[in-house]
């Protein structure tokens, strides 16, 4: 196992925030270095509720249901909900733990200071989605792996958002409060209760949750808009009728309801400040289950007080747990809850299973599912040394070669396979799309798999890093496996040379001694 020279590369979250890991030499391991491990989990306490449901796996008491499994393999498993301050239980274990499991619902803030103290730390797992409670730059610089259970609670959150939209549109909460306090005043509710039908709903962020929300909103006959860095699949656009808005500030004034569905990154922190909220329609309703810090706390309070925001609902706060004097508890027209949307019992079963799966892979030295990595380290000893990428043009690609980095435009994208495959208690969607990509020198078919499919939207410009050439029926196809990466980038200025499609050229194997230029010993173009 690697003991030094580990190179860290921040994958999804850092890429999205435009940051990159420093070039320090790192000293930690990607996968378990063998022997017994100390694993610490930080979960919310369930107290009297723990016994009420055997599947309440996300609680401190049930600790993801993995205690017996871990201990039977000789590992130590400490669980606590005590995560704040210098004398908390978590601090007592920071120095010698190997793996820290946290959740966004009761986030243990993994600061650069804690990472520095954690000399044995190798792996940070988020049981759920959203690892912004971890200092990802510090984790990357320390050569740690950060991973989460991508997709585990997206249905739970999308359903919850739909509920919050309806609660706000119908002015439900004051009605409920009247009943509890013995009142009966229909007018007090009805003067600002509406139908959802015909209203314009915009999601800021149309990733897994945003897309599920659009699908769920479709039957309500709203006008659906979405803003994202990338366009969604044209099929889904057609199915939902959702329209892409490239410019967020142009979308906001059109919306009666805005739902926030982006991760918290350097770019989205404070995205909804005073100025941006002022751009929203007067009387707008806002739902935010993404992260509290995407909002400027005081700007939301002021806009709710003035009526510019007519209703604000969400389950995410900054910080968490929200202190008793958090102003969002006291502002008018809110429908806030503790952080609950992604921790339904169904979600807990999924993120517990996903966490167990990653621990199992970590012990065995296996890769995690690619979409789960937030920060990924790579062991220098077992992988080729790093060099600066040399950008290639499409017409330089040769059969059976690899290690290509190219900037290409997506000319077209066609789904050729889409099926569900059982994986433990989860069902994974397997998706394959054939995409024609190209630059000013030619085109080639790129085979996009699973999450890559979402990035390969027609018209997008993407960087294919460490791509390889697969031969398919004698023709070249481009692909990016787990050692590479697909990144959406700024639109390129070139026009694609569509009359030079390399995938239409057929190759056949011939003997080395038939070669005109002996010594090459490789597949040659025989056409
Ligand atoms: N309240 C809860 O219990 C939960 C909250 N979440 C939050 O929801 C977020 C989204 O989750 P998923 O949909 O699964 O993530 P995802 O990664 O599938 O989608 C995020 C989308 O946001 C877009 N995006 C990122 N930065 C952007 C920017 N600056 N401008 C415009 N678009 C941008 C991405 O392109 C992507 O399409 C998570 O990061 C997490 O913070 C997730 C699960 C549970």
UniProtKB/TrEMBL annotation:
Its main location: mitochondrion. GO terms for biological process: formate catabolic process. It is found in: Mitochondrion. Its EC number is 1.17.1.9. Substrate binds at residues 129, 153. Residues 397-488 form the Single-stranded DNA binding protein Ssb-like OB fold domain. The record marks 291, 339 as: Important for catalytic activity. It comes from the Eukaryota. Keywords: Mitochondrion, NAD, Oxidoreductase. NCBIfam families: PRK07574.1. Catalyzes the NAD(+)-dependent oxidation of formate to carbon dioxide. Involved in the cell stress response. This is Formate dehydrogenase, mitochondrial. The lineage of its organism: Eukaryota, Viridiplantae, Streptophyta, Embryophyta, Tracheophyta.
């Amino acid at each position: 196992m690697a003991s030094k020279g580990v190179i860290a590369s921040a994958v999804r979250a850092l890429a999205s925030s435009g940051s990159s890991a420093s070039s320090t030499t790192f000293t930690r391991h990607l996968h378990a270095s063998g022997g017994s491990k100390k694993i610490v989990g930080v979960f919310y306490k369930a107290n009297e509720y723990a016994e009420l449901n055997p599947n309440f796996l996300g609680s401190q008491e049930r600790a993801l249901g993995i205690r017996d499994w871990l201990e039977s393999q000789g590992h130590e498993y400490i669980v606590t909900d005590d995560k704040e301050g210098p004398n908390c239980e978590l601090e007592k274990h920071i120095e010698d733990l190997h793996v820290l499991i946290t959740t966004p619902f009761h986030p243990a803030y993994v600061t650069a200071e804690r990472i520095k103290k954690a000399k044995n730390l190798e792996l940070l797992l988020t049981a759920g989605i959203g690892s912004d409670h971890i200092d990802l730059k510090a984790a990357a610089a320390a050569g740690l792996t950060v991973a989460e259970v991508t997709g585990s609670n997206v249905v739970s959150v999308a359903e919850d958002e739909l509920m919050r939209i309806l609660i706000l549109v119908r002015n439900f909460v004051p009605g409920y409060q009247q009943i509890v306090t013995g009142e009966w005043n229909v007018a007090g509710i009805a003067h600002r209760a509406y139908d959802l039908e015909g209203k314009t709903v915009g999601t800021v962020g149309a990733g897994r949750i945003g897309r599920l929300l659009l699908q769920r909103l479709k039957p309500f006959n709203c006008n659906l808009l979405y803003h994202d860095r990338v366009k969604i699949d044209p099929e889904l656009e057609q199915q939902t009728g959702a329209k892409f808005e490239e410019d967020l500030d142009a979308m906001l004034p059109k919306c009666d309801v805005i739902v926030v569905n982006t991760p918290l990154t350097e770019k989205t922190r404070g995205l909804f400040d005073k100025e941006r909220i002022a751009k929203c329609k007067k009387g707008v309703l806002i739902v935010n289950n993404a992260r509290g810090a995407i909002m400027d706390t005081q700007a939301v309070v002021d806009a709710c007080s003035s009526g510019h925001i007519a209703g604000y609902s969400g389950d995410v706060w900054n910080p968490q747990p929200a202190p008793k004097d958090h102003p969002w508890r006291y502002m008018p027209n809110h429908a806030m809850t503790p952080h609950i949307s992604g921790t339904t019992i169904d979600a807990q079963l999924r993120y517990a299973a996903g966490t167990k799966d990653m621990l199992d892979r970590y012990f065995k030295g296996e890769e995690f599912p690619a979409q789960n990595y937030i920060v990924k380290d790579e062991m220098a000893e077992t992988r080729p040394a790093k060099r600066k990428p040399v950008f290639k043009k499409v017409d330089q690609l040769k059969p059976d070669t690899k290690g290509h980095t190219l900037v290409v435009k997506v000319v077209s994208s066609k789904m050729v396979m889409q099926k569900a495959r059982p994986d433990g208690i989860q069902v994974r969607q397997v998706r394959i799309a054939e995409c024609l990509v190209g630059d000013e020198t030619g085109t080639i078919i790129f085979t996009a798999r699973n999450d890559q499919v979402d990035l390969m939207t027609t018209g997008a410009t993407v960087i294919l890093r460490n791509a390889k050439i697969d031969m398919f029926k004698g023709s070249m196809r481009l692909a990016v496996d787990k050692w590479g990466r697909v990144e959406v980038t700024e639109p390129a200025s070139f026009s694609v040379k569509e009359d030079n499609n390399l995938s239409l050229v057929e190759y056949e194997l011939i003997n080395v001694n038939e070669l005109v230029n002996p010594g090459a010993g490789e597949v040659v173009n025989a056409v």
